[in-house]
Amino acid sequence: MLEIIAFDIESCAAIEKAGAHRIELCANPAEGGTTASYGMIKTARQLTQINLFPIIRPRGGDFLYSNVEFDTMKEDILLCKKTGCDGVVSGLLKKDGTIDKDRTSLLVSLAYPMEFTFHRAFDRVIDMEQALSDVIHCGCTRILTSGLYPTAIEGIDNIKKLVTLADNRITIMPGSGIRANNIATIIQQTGATEIHSSARIQKPSAMEKHNATLSEKSESVSVDTHEIKNLLNAMKQSTHL
Fold it and tell me: For 161-187, how does the pLDDT look when each residue is reduced to its tens digit (9 = 90+)?
């Protein structure tokens, strides 16, 4: 199972056409992904048939949310359910770096029957094994993690440990820095069966005229369909080694 991030609406159809199995839909790549607009979620659902999982994250930064932010997350989950999404990607922490079990469990219940991926907030916990137990207790479907390191390659030993400890009670999905040249290593050394990648590229602007006095770049984040195909090929080869 290969999940690819879409940061723009055109990437959704491209991801499906390239053969990936699931889309994580996000806005705001500069902050690691935040909740897309309702219009973007609705259009993405209309454009694609593969699994669509919008991220439910009201802002960038940490994963300690106020009551108002939490209420916003609940409303966004209900909109995703109404729109026909297959799952959501979210998660909350407490001040002490533990899983916010009460509020995460509430979001999981609200999302049902959609699946619920606990995202890389997991990589900021203080106790990996306890956090794994807590996320399982919340009823989440999977955990997206880089093994508590910046990239999955760096955290590969922790990911392997999580897969073993999970014992098929929850799916451990490695992500962060995974490309076609290292995906086989991740799969073979961890035993993971689902992989997350951005396969991102910088898309140049099609504008013919630019205001040279402005410092903001006009390029945007998109997906590399060739990289997606290479990821899929490397996945297939790794399962036959």
Answer: 999 999 999 999 999 999 999 999 999
Q: Which of 100, 95, 90, 164 is nearest to 134 (CA)?
A: 100
How far is 230 from 176, CA to CA, in rounded Å? 17
Radius of gyration of the chain (CA): 18
Domains of the chain, first to last: 2-238 (3.20.20.380)
Contact yes or no for 167/220 (Cβ under 8 A): no
Contact 172, 162 (CB under 8 A): yes
| Token pair listed for 44 | 């993405």
Report which secondary-structure segment, H or E, holds 186: helix 183-190
Q: Is there a contact between 45 and 16 (Cβ–Cβ < 8 Å)?
A: no
Per-residue exposure over 208-222, b if at least 16 CB sit within 10 Å of its own CB, e if not: eeeeeeeeeeeeebb
- Give residue-wise pLDDT tens across range 130-147: 999 999 999 999 999 999
